[in-house]
Specification:
This protein is of the alpha/beta class. The chain has 2 domains: 88 residues, uronate isomerase, domain 2, chain A; 324 residues, Alpha-Beta Barrel (TIM Barrel). 49% of the residues lie in helices and 8% in strands. Strands 4-5-8-9 form a 4-stranded parallel beta sheet, with helices on one face. The chain has a 3-stranded parallel beta sheet with strand order 1-2-3. A two-stranded antiparallel ribbon has the order 6-7. Strand 8, helix 17 and strand 9 form a beta-alpha-beta unit. Helix 11 crosses helix 12, helix 13 crosses helix 14 and helix 17 runs parallel beside helix 18. The relative contact order is 0.15.
Length: 472
């Protein structure tokens, strides 16, 4: 079986290779946005086999397998774990040009030391070798974070979460990574959800007081924010399709909130008023605490209703929303900036044609408080691959200041995803190496290498202000 040599993967010239191997490769990982299960880390979960670790919950792989016509029973269904892995192994050779081809071989190499190209021919051998290694503590959940020198990992957590696992991690001296929660109050903003009234009741119970009025909702969210802050949280996160900006008074929003508690559906304009007003109030609270606000914008979710009914959400049936954003984004940022209550903010778009626009918008609100206070978020979801990363990096560098960029994240539920940081660093060095080779940058490797290292780790460490749990 032929090997896949990943040593110089994506590094297309000598300058790129020098920047990556001498400056980027050894940098620690700062994974400030992921969807890992903190309970798995606290328990240092041992995975039963390679399918559980590598394929379960990975909708990237699921989508590719469906594209290849593989039966759903071998993806999310009731087929055996080894049969599911064999189906994936048959798929990999057909994924040329897709980032999964690179990711899969990087993941096998970096986790298990397997350099062979995965295919049906060696799948059974790979299956047994990997499963044997999974007995080692370095490939248990917390062990993987230590193995990849992950200094900070920020999970994604609902305001009603008790954060017990995070507190357990903080008291576990064997876990070297600072694993911290991120405040994600999407359900408190989703006022037209059938479960909204029930969620508000649950939120009030967690906050210690029933929520019957809109002011009580804001107080409950602030109480939970204080609880998260005490547990080390320094980031919030919000997910949107379109990003509305609709003016409203608190009295109007109180009326809309009361309608929702009566299970009355709001019009799109009313929903926009509620979401805008509430997000502005949350932004002020984030600013008061020194938090960073993340805005993930532009996903059409759960588009296949038949499969949603069968598998539930987050099963690989989401796509990109094309829409107008400039006016609403500028208005939102301006509203907070007017009263000097604009928090550090990262704006991600799933629609890549927004990159240049977002870069110009956030440039309107940078300040002397902090270098790169507002960030054009890394290439997200469908775009966290070579072409998408290059598009985002070029937009940021040509319109903004790339040297302040806080870099990559995994945005993943899988403990196998940390090589995506390596993939990003290779793309980053490829771009800077190209600029050096073409004469756009000086061949001063210590100078350019420092900027590369800053983007890989140092900028995030300074920007978010979250110390690592321990020195390595």
């Amino acid at each position: 079986m032929k090997h896949f040599n990943t040593e110089n993967l994506l590094l297309t010239n000598e300058s790129a290779r020098k920047l990556y191997h001498e400056y980027a490769a050894a940098m620690p990982v700062y994974d400030y946005h992921n969807h890992l299960n903190a309970g798995d880390i606290a328990a240092n979960k041992q995975f039963r086999n390679l399918t559980e670790l590598w394929l379960e919950g990975d909708h990237y792989k699921w989508r590719a397998m469906r594209w290849l016509g593989i039966d759903e029973s071998l993806i999310t269904g009731n087929a055996g774990d080894q049969d599911k892995f064999m189906a994936w192994a048959r798929a990999v050779p057909r994924l040329v040009g897709n980032p999964l081809y690179h990711w899969s071989h990087l993941e096998l190499s970096r986790h298990f030391g397997i350099e062979e190209r995965l295919s049906e021919d060696n799948a059974e051998s790979v299956w047994h070798r990997c499963n044997e290694q999974l007995q080692e503590r370095s490939l248990h959940a917390a062990g993987i974070l230590n193995k990849f020198d992950v200094r900070v990992a920020c999970t994604t957590d609902d305001p009603v979460d008790d954060l017990a696992a995070h507190l357990e991690i903080q008291n576990n001296d064997e876990i070297m990574t600072a694993v911290l929660p991120t405040f994600r109050p999407d359900r408190a903003l989703d006022i037209n959800s059938l479960a909204f009234a029930e969620y508000v009741q649950n939120l009030g119970a967690k906050a210690g007081a029933p929520v019957t009025k809109y002011a009580g909702l804001l107080q409950a969210l602030e109480n939970r924010m204080d609880y998260f802050h005490a547990a080390g949280c320094r980031l919030s996160d919000h997910g949107f399709g379109e990003f509305p900006f609709e003016h409203a008074t608190e009295r109007e929003v109180e009326s809309l909130f009361a309608k929702a508690l009566r299970h009355e559906k709001l019009t799109p304009a009313e929903e926009g008023q509620y979401r805008t007003f509430t997000l502005l109030r949350l932004g002020e609270m984030y600013h008061a605490r020194g938090w960073t606000m993340q805005l993930h914008i532009g996903a059409v979710r759960n588009s296949n209703t038949r499969m949603l009914a069968k598998l539930g959400k987050d099963s690989g049936y989401d796509s990109i929303l094309d829409y107008h954003l400039a006016a609403s984004l500028n208005a939102f940022l301006n509203e907070l900036d007017t009263e000097d209550r604009l928090p550090k903010t990262i704006v991600y778009s799933l629609y890549p044609y927004h990159y240049e626009m977002i870069a110009t918008a956030i440039g309107n609100f940078q300040s002397g408080e902090e270098a790169g206070k507002l960030q054009l978020g890394s290439a997200w979801w469908f775009h966290d691959q070579k072409e998408g990363m290059l598009q985002q990096l070029k937009a940021l560098s040509s319109i903004g200041v790339i040297s302040t960029f806080v870099g990559m994240l995994t945005d993943s539920r899988s403990f196998m995803s940390f090589p995506r940081h390596e993939y990003f660093r290779r793309v980053l060095c490829r771009l800077f190496g190209q600029w050096i080779e073409e004469g756009d940058l000086p061949a001063d490797y210590d100078y350019i290498g420092q900027i590369v290292q800053d983007i890989c780790f140092n900028n995030a460490s300074q920007y978010f202000g979250i110390p690592g749990k321990k020195q390595r």
